[in-house]
Design a protein that fits this description.
Elements: H1 2-16, H2 18-21, H3 25-35, H4 38-42, E1 45-53, E2 56-61, H5 62-75, E3 78-87, E4 93-102, E5 106-116, E6 119-129
Parallel strand pairs: 1-6
Antiparallel strand pairs: 1-2, 3-4, 4-5, 5-6
Length: about 130
């Protein structure tokens, strides 16, 4: 009886704080970058995304952004990632910095996300060489 009541309270509390039980989107994106999974990353792209990669900057469609990211991963296969910084206290905005290590170089990946309807979408993705 007590166990059933405890489970009921836990399940009801998740209705009031669903974000508490969900993994942070920056954590998920970090694992996708580590895997070099451009398809999963692109699922979080807004309909248009500002991409800044090394020395190129432009606004692309979701499909174009995925292709550019895929090409980046082919040239720079990921080895590991670590989350350097994240802002997740604003209900309508997320920002994260991921350090992406490849076999030859280390990159600083900055991700800016805005909330559209009920989910966050990446509006800007910046990949630049990490400064030592």
């Amino acid at each position: 009886m007590i166990r059933s009541l405890f489970l009921l309270i836990i399940s009801l509390s998740s209705l009031y704080h669903p974000a508490a039980l969900q993994a942070d989107i920056i954590d998920d994106l970090s694992s996708y970058f580590k895997a070099g999974n451009s398809k999963e990353i692109a699922k979080s792209f807004a309909s248009t995304i500002e991409l800044i990669m090394v020395d190129e900057e432009d606004v692309y469609s979701k499909a174009q952004g995925e292709q550019i990211l895929r090409d980046f991963f082919v040239k720079h296969p990921p080895v590991k990632t670590s989350i350097f910084h994240k802002i997740n206290t604003n209900p309508n905005y997320r920002f994260g910095v991921i350090i992406l290590s490849t076999a030859k170089e280390t990159f600083r990946v900055s991700i800016t996300m805005k909330k559209f309807n009920t989910s966050f979408s990446i509006t800007e993705l910046r990949i630049e060489p990490a400064k030592d």
